[in-house]
Design brief:
95 residues, six-stranded antiparallel β-barrel, globular
Length: 95
Amino acid sequence: MNLEFRGEILFWHGPAPFYFVAVPEQQSLDLKAISSLVTYGWGVIPVHVQIGKTQWKTSLFPKDGRYLVPIKANVRKAEELEDGDSVTVRLEVRL
């Protein structure tokens, strides 16, 4: 399954700070429909992600009916991204 969407980079303060992009509602529903086939526990879904020219592997986290894409520091640096920036995210979920 391949998905592409635009989203805003969000900063989560939490116990450890993280940056995320939320998967839109409809595409989150599509991911939820296949989650039992691909999750390795706690509802997380392993994916290949691309923003700009940067690609990496990570896991989507379920939150409030949607999924969050964690944006690593090296990705933010390579693509010159900050909190609030709008980005195009490409996801590949291998079934």
